[in-house]
């Protein structure tokens, strides 16, 4: 180390001017080493390194036309939210293999981290789903709340402004819990549909066997039991009205 010259202790290199030091501190290599050093034991190092492999390719494919000058005015959240995929990055086009790799990518490349959610009883994937709805559905920044006209525009805004972070507030926690309840309701409805479909059994030849009818149908559904089968009470009442007089 040379005395009197700026020095980067992380990368072990020195610079001739402070301007070179400032430019180096913004480089991807320097930021990656800093975040890797303080990333903690929650994410393995090999996953974080794998998350950085395609980062250069993602940056090259970034749509440069989506700058901040287009669509500074607020837009209403009227766009249909695309389907959520836990492997898709919230801030660029990168797609990982697993949710953990996606979290490592967003942490190393965009400084996105999720605080401890134990006090809120919220799963990390639920929080990411909520931010997916905000970003992909409303084109809204999760940090400052600004909106853009396109998805690429709001992603470019968050990356350029370093707004890929958030503060866990009461509104966000309530939104996450509502999303969890909605997902639970969808799961119950899906299970009910599968239960209804399970009433039919399929042979290998493709023919379908129907389950035999119940011997005693519930009367509150409008049925009554007879020897010949089950008939609607309403039909019998109509017959009485026509032929009874």
Automatic annotation (TrEMBL):
> What Pfam families does the entry give?
zf-C2H2_2 (PF12756)
Query: In which domain of life is the source organism classified?
Result: Eukaryota
Tell me one GO biological process term. ribosomal large subunit biogenesis
Residues forming the ZN622/Rei1/Reh1 zinc finger C2H2-type domain are: 89-171
| GO CC terms, sorted | preribosome, large subunit precursor
List, alphabetically, the SUPFAM superfamilies matched. beta-beta-alpha zinc fingers (SSF57667)
What name does the UniProt record give this protein? TRI15- transcription factor
Organism per entry: Fusarium acutatum
